[in-house]
Amino acid sequence: MLKAPPLPDRVAEILLARIRAGEFPPGSFLPSSRELERQFGVSRIVIREALRSLAAKGILRIYQGKGAQVCPADPAYAAEVMELLLLGRRTVWPDLMEVRQILEVAAAELAARRRTPEDLATLQVALEQMAAALTDAEAFAEWDVAFHHRLVRAAHNPILDIVTHPIGELLRASRLAILNPERHHLSQTLLEEHRAIYLA
Q1: What is the mean pLDDT of residues 132-142?
Q2: Contact 107, 152 (CB under 8 A)
Q3: Rounded to the nearest 5°, which phi and psi values hold at 67?
């Protein structure tokens, strides 16, 4: 016979269901610990453990004296979670590059059909900034990441945006290491590749 999950786990599951249902939208605060104790009929320790469990999963952020806040719907938070999941894996960077390439081919195809004049304008700005930063590895890497994010957004598929954003953020550091000042020819090559995508 299966055992019932521990009480803190059950409370966490119910709170998560309420968050998903929209009762507590991103950026909002949950009721106070005392109110949650009353609602669930459990002790403060149970509530504290349930909230910590949700915080560990990146769903809540706990502030001393303010309570537990539902994490804003920002894809950047997913990068932190993904980084933890990938700790200790030897082939992380090649695998991430492979996944990004697969997703961005699809994004580029969608963007070619769905992009708006505003999308093209933001991509053009990113290209201009990359061209101006050919000898500045850090600035070039930042605008390279921005170009990829804007390309995905031009596909107008919010799920694709959510999935690709954390991958791009994790690759930011490796891209900076590759694009050092002594390898500005690589920056020039990347810039030409990005221009080809923009013109497609």
Answers
A1: 81
A2: yes
A3: 110, -160
Domain 76-199 has CATH 1.20.120.530: yes
Domain positions in the chain are: 7-70, 76-199
Helix (H) or strand (E) holding 106: helix 92-114
Please state, in angstroms and rounded to a whole number, the distance separating the CA atoms of residues 196 and 12. Answer: 48
Q: HSE (CB half, 13 Å, CA atoms) of 38?
A: 5
pLDDT for 1: 47
Share of the chain above pLDDT 70, in %: 77
Q: How confident is the model at residue 43 (pLDDT cuts 50, 70, 90)?
A: very high
In whole angstroms, what is the distance from residue 36 CA to residue 11 CA?
Answer: 9
161-187 pLDDT, tens digit per residue, is: 888 888 877 776 666 555 555 555 566
CATH number of 7-70, picked from 3.30.70.1290, 3.60.10.10, 1.10.10.10, 2.60.120.200: 1.10.10.10
pTM for this prediction: 0.61
Q: Mean pLDDT throughout 145-157?
A: 90
Return the number of other C-beta atoms located less than 10 Å from residue 31's C-beta: 15
Amino acid of residue 13: E
CB crowding 53-81: b at 16 or more within 10 Å, else e? bbbeeebbbeeeeebbbbbeeebebbbee
Contact between 98 and 90 (Cβ < 8 Å): no
